[in-house]
Amino acid sequence: MKVSIPAIAALALIAGAATAQEIRPEVKARQGQFQTLSINLGILGGMARGDVAYDAVRAEAAARSIAGVSMVDIAALFPEGTDAMSIEGTRAEPAIWDNLPDVLTKWQAGRAPGGAGEAAAAKGPQDIGAALGGLAGACKACHDAYRTPN
Ligand code: HEC
Predict the structure, then answer these.
(1) Which atom of ligand 1 is nearest to the CA of 145?
(2) Which of 24, 34, 97, 105 has most ligand 1 atoms within 8 Å of its beta carbon, as the pocket-test mutant?
(3) pLDDT tens digits for the chain (150 residues)?
(4) For the CA atoms of 69, 72, 75, 78, what is the dihedral angle to 10 degrees?
């Protein structure tokens, strides 16, 4: 297919404009990662409350996913200029960039409860409930400090 030079230039312009409005991949990645945590926490929470029938295989898969995501190093997902004051579509507090070591510490604080969740998932709903408290506390501690309120 033959494409004229002006057509290519026009396409490049359209593509450039679209890129400027797109959410940056780092922002998408961190939000997707938080959603993965939330979805799997929801599965475990449902079983702990008895809303969803306990299923060891499903519980272990959810707990393993949480533990796996918590092992990701999130530093690369918070590049400068991706705070809620600078761009649309994020709830990342600007304070994150003044306190990166603390943010990473709060992130890592979820790893132990994440691992405890894995062990609990195999045992049953009561154990899951006990393990979830620690994990949810780790989520909340960071949200209170570094996520803009809705
Ligand atoms: C180290 C800090 C930190 C920890 C720990 C943390 N979060 Fe978050 N979370 C954030 C920040 C910051 C945002 C906003 C991200 C953005 O909008 O760019 C967020 C956003 C979210 C969102 C919204 C994502 C979206 O689609 O916009 C959900 C859901 C969420 N977190 C769930 C959780 C759960 C569940 C946990 C614990 C298992 C957790 N988070 C642990 C900092 C954290």
Answers:
(1) 2
(2) 34
(3) 566 667 766 666 665 554 556 899 999 999 999 999 999 999 999 999 999 999 999 999 999 999 999 999 999 999 999 999 999 999 999 999 999 999 999 999 988 888 888 889 999 999 999 889 889 999 999 999 999 998
(4) -30
How far are the Cα atoms of 28, 40, 90, 121 from residue 65, in angstroms, in the given order? 18, 7, 24, 12
The burial class, CB within 10 Å (0-12 / 13-18 / 19+), for 112 is middle
142 lines ligand 1 (CB under 6 A): yes
What are the structure tokens assigned to 104, written together? Answer: 């990473």
